[in-house]
Amino acid sequence: MVLKIGSGDIDDLSTLNVLDEESLLRELRARYKKGVIYTYIGDVLIAINPFKQLNIYEKQQHDLYKDVRCRHQLTPHIFWVADQAYRKLCLSKKAQCIAVSGESGAGKTESTKLMVSHIIHCSGDAGDRELQNRIIETSPLLEAFGNAQTCMNQNSSRFGKYLQLNFTNTGRIVG
Fold this sequence. Notes:
By secondary structure, the chain is mostly helical. It has helices at about 20-35, 60-65, 80-90, 110-120, 130-135, 140-145; strands spanning about 40, 45, 145-150, 155.
């Protein structure tokens, strides 16, 4: 199969022959027009905010992206990032870190919520909605101290946020 540059069919932009801004943006634009919001570039996942609800975060996707051994088995997805961090935590017994970055209104808070929900799913506590809600609901409380309205976002954060999840030795989330 031959992939044409700008076709929107390339899941990992680091495989492009030419890695310049024009090529990257052309491919990202083509993927976005196809409704594909996630794209890898090496070990980094690029997410383009669709500014609408998508049906790609349901139980089916949680199950599909749980315990994935090879990234290229499936299309790029934020659940893959969460799954990898959780699996490496369980295997190495060492803390893992996921950095979420982007401009105001890019979807950082929503992305974090999605990753937390997937990690809870992976840890075997998917039914513990109360725990998930308590973790996710800490964000608005913290944001209330440093948010301001911008032209891109009604409540843009004015500081970095740090969220730490705690697990038992068996990988069960406890807070």
